[in-house]
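We were asked to recover a plausible sequence for a given structure. The inputs and outputs are reproduced exactly as logged, with field labels preserved.

PROBLEM: sequence recovery
POSITIONS: 232
GIVEN STRUCTURE:
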């Protein structure tokens, strides 16, 4: 690995960057292997209560925090919940919101779209999974002086970080679910988060149950999600 060279630009330090590069053939191979591996990731609702090493969760969150963000503000907070009493409180609050959603908030089209997933308002996995990672987005930062500082492209930045997070969970041999009870304000209250943070995702993390089933779904083919604009 080449030693980094430091350059000053307008008084700010920049370092030379030497990313790993491959031949065209190797690039194709790596891209295919990564796609096949990531395509095996699934959202899971059948969790084991088998303990997960805390250090593994810490490493996963370090990986998530390598995500790019607007002006490098990193406008996220990952709240890691392992306490059984807190998990139970979160489950009860989430199920209340989910019950209301399934019995009045969701229109018929939405309910029909959910049928292939066979989900309902009951969320036992929120207590079974060893960890809940509650992702908060920071609308702004608060300095020690109490001064507010703007963050930029907050939802986009936190969304990218969550993508990195899910990939890191999969790489560790763990499973997860992106859970979005709506509204999610109860998470701010239960976890006593400051006013500048808004709940973004609730993600149970752990090992899959001994018998785990997921819906037999097909992803959209490339032609349905991509448009290429090649030179004529």
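RECOVERED SEQUENCE:
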């Amino acid at each position: 690995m080449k030693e980094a060279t430091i350059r000053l630009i307008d008084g700010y330090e920049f370092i030379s960057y030497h990313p790993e590069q491959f031949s065209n053939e190797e690039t194709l191979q790596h891209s295919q292997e990564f796609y096949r591996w990531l395509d095996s990731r699934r959202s899971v609702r059948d969790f084991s209560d088998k303990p997960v090493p805390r250090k593994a969760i810490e490493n996963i969150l370090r990986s998530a925090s390598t995500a790019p963000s607007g002006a490098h503000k990193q406008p996220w907070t990952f709240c890691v919940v392992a306490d059984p009493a807190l998990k139970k409180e979160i489950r009860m609050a989430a199920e209340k919101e989910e019950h209301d959603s399934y019995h009045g908030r969701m229109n018929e089209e939405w309910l029909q779209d959910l049928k292939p997933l066979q989900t309902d308002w009951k969320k036992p996995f929120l207590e079974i999974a060893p960890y809940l990672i509650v992702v908060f987005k920071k609308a702004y930062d608060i300095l020690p002086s109490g001064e507010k500082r703007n963050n930029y492209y907050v939802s986009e930045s936190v969304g990218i970080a969550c993508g990195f997070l899910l990939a890191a969970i999969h790489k560790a041999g763990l499973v997860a679910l992106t859970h979005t009870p709506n509204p999610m304000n109860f998470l701010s209250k239960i976890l006593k988060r400051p006013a500048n943070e808004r709940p973004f995702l609730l993600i149970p993390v752990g090992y899959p149950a001994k018998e785990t089933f997921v819906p037999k779904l097909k992803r959209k083919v490339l032609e349905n999600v991509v448009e290429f604009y090649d030179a004529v």
